[in-house]
Specification:
Elements lengths: L2 E5 L4 H10 L14 E5 L3 H16 L11
Antiparallel strand pairs: 1-2
């Protein structure tokens, strides 16, 4: 499989949980890279869901339910 790593500049475990709340599964932590998010490349629809969740989590954009991502 193809994947990429994103340096998120904060602990990854809480971010993984935020993605899970949005029904988007990302990779587990990879010590010692505990500020990097592992993302497997999926279908166009899956990557669209990832991009939407990423924007919500990292910019605080409102979710479909009207709540902030942070």
């Amino acid at each position: 499989g193809n994947f990429f790593m994103v340096h998120i500049k904060r602990p990854v475990q809480p971010v993984i949980e935020e993605f899970r709340k949005r029904s988007v599964l990302v990779g587990r932590p990879f010590p010692p890279m505990l500020e990097h998010l592992r993302v497997s490349v999926g279908t166009e629809a899956e990557m669209g869901r990832f991009a939407t969740a990423f924007k919500e989590i990292f910019t605080g954009a409102p979710t479909a339910g009207g709540k902030s991502g942070r």
